[in-house]
Amino acid sequence: MTARPILLDCDTGIDDALAILDFTARGGEVLAVGSVHGNVPAPIGARNTLRVLEIAGAEDVPVCVGAARPLAQPLLTAEHVHGQDGLGNTNQPSPRRPVGEGSAAEQIVRLAHARPGEFTLVAIGPLTNLALALLLDPELARLIPEVIIMGGAVGVAGNVSPTAEANIWHDPEAAQLVIEADWKVTLVTLDATMQALLTPTDLEAIQGATGERARFAWAILDHYLTVYQQWLPGRTCPLHDPLALALVLDPDLATYRTLPTQVELRGLATRGATVCDLRTDPASPSPEPGWRMVRYLDQLDVERFRALFVAGITAG
Ligand code: RIB
Ligand code: CA
User: Fold this and answer.
1) Is pLDDT above 90 for 2?
2) Where are the domains of the chain?
3) β-sheet bridge partners, residue 35
4) N or C: lower Cβ tally within 10 Å for the chain?
């Protein structure tokens, strides 16, 4: 089965960049991209995305700037993880083309009406643009069959607080709006992405490859690997965003389970946590308001995913 094209929402970001490079190298079609605050401010995320699309040979893909801040909390960015420029302080040249007109949220609404049912919406940053698009158009969810999100943590620790993963934590209200909408949502959580770690052999293969994509990937990885040395043994890093995009191309990289879910909005220590009702039979959704059935990865074929990723990054 051929994968549907995607509309991508991202906060590029080192792993966002790796995800775009891998997805495009392996034949994935990107219709358009929106940037959002998160790893870096949204305009920098858009600039980085334009640069990455140049490396990927996808200069026809429009990029719109999205939300400058979360719905209900101040802006917080993550340059300590992704570098001051969001691309590992690699001092990239300015992109050759400008961003598109209009906001990322407007772009989602426009494309959903122009191509109803035809694309998958993939979010690998905070969910503010998706929430704004839902607020702009109450019919939106009906037009988009599937939404894949890198975000959340269910049975593992968070990465910005004891319980919250960054993309949800950056805008919990937006995340809850997106989960509550009437579309099929898959959350690619830290439970899965923290299994998907690059090995020394993978890194050697990327370092040794000579194509522009691999050279760019190696340059931005250096910073990411150094940052992750604080948290993980050895020189490695998780492939959060690449896994979400890889699942568009190969959904059978994982098995899935569906659980009633809501985002914690009020907890003092738990704001931004993705709370799952693990007591419930997955076939019978919890009846209380706010809970929605969300799909999660159950078993992930880590070896196959890593092999595909390395093949994508080192191609050409
Ligand atoms: O928690 C990982 C996520 O947060 C990834 O999308 C990464 O790019 C950051 O945005
Ligand atoms: Ca991201």
Assistant:
1) no
2) 6-313
3) 10, 65
4) N
